[in-house]
Give the backbone structure.
Amino acid sequence: MSAATILSQFAATGVQSCFHGRHLQPQIMADLNGSNWRLKDYEARGGYAALRKILGQDGGPGMTPDQVIAEVKASGLRGRGGAGFPTGLKWSFMPRQFPGQKYLVCNSDEGEPGTAKDRDILTHNPHVVIEGMAIAAYAMGITAGYNYIHGEIFATYQRFEAALQEARDAGLLGSNILGSTFSFNLQVTHGFGAYICGEETALLESLEGKKGQPRFKPPFPASFGLYGKPTTINNTETFAAVPWIIRNSGQAYLEVGKPNNGGTKLFTVSGDVNSPGNFEVPLGTPFAKLLELAGGIRSGRRLKAVIPGGSSMPVLPADIMMATDMDYDSIAKAGSMLGSGAVIVMDDSRCMVKSLLRLSYFYMHESCGQCTPCREGTGWLWRMVHRIEHGQGRQSDLDLLNSVSDNIQGRTICALGDAAAMPVRAMIKHFRVEFEHHITHKTCMVPAYA
Amino acid sequence: MNFSEQTTALFDREVAKYPPDQKQSAVMACLTIVQREQGWVSPDSEKAVAEYLGMAPMAVHEVTTFYNMYNQRPLGKYKLNVCTNLPCQLRNASQALSHLETKLGIALGETTADGLFTLQQSECLGACADAPVMLVNDVNMCSFMSNDKLDQLVDGLKALEGKQ
């Protein structure tokens, strides 16, 4: 027996996270079983029909790049990586007549704590991402692309490499795709442990072989991206949504969700639920329904708080969450952000000070050090939360935490500073009494958790 | 330091992904290959990679030191990286870590005397639905790591290495 054999016994099968049959109207996760990731399986599910359609290789008239972009605009598809920017609009920013090389980049550097959806897409349905990228490249007149995958999910990187080779061998990537005049070369590359590279300009720096420190913007990647060339960067799940839109129309996609929030979204539900996992549901699905899909709260416990969009987003208390739908606008109205769709659930046994302490450590650890407010501020925040948690907090600390957060937020090159500050502000806003109890009584209000 | 032909063939495969004047883009992949073969990235390896890619050695060192997964010193044969970020913390990651400390008889960051295991805490590995998770030697993601499974894993590797 080899070490690889021993270790492979503990590898995820996807049964719990993905093949549980509890998606609602799935598009990306539909009909997957863990062994049907190959090209022939994808084609049997209707895969690459959208690429054939736009290239006019299905007997139809084909679609012009403008028509493809118009269809994506009509779909209401918004970026699935965190910011929720309208995808069709982003694509229209690319200069059409640029004389040199342009690039397409897929951001698969999925490092936002709580998010593990792109991993399942890339592992179990890699060709949907390849097809989505090829369609995007056609729409923007791009001939070269990279998929940058989180270094920690190396097995997924290897899977994607195998899928790329299948697509190349079948003439679905490379020169003169499917006998058309369209050419697109796609490569896969990986990170090696840096949360900041999920920020798109840090990712570009990393792709160029440098430390991943975000760039000052403007110029935006659409004018100065990879190697200084016009570049469009989208999240993995965003690309994965595109083939369905082209096959079924933008209008049909929009109708799956709700106005301004088209389509389905993958939510990673983690924490204190009975069955954590990824759930693909239409945008606008009530949080209560999503919680039910994840098996509900651990037995004997009650919902206390939810971070609805990944660790960078403001936490919301149970009553607000239970009245909220899972879409960009509803969650914004409730006071947080949909982010990457990472739903971290906490029950009534959880101390919010301790939870915040772990998140604050993370942002301190991952700050790239480029901007002083973030480099110094994240450490300051952690030290204060640490002393509050350990019974050495001062009465003035809560105001100071808010003040330090204010002096980070909006004052840094990238959003990591905001990501460090927002959880602090929201935790104090909604659970101030717990922080005050720690400071006054030097003990925790709720049973300590390991 | 000279790399074997086999190693440079792997390097070349990575370099070929990028435009001819952008060989530096392959640095992360090359350092990853070096780590897989040697267990860590030594200063000599950095210099050799720099020479291979036409980079300044310091530019390579910047990469090694910026990204968390590069080992800047030799570690145990099996690097155990336990995620302790919030989604894993909510599902007993702290217990998993202390269980391993007890089982291996070492503290966080240390290597067992027989050189087999190094125990580290890590930031989000991106497998939150399978918490608690542990990444072994940068490649093998281990899911739902209860104490029983941790025992199985450690005992299995020890038996394989003839240390039990």
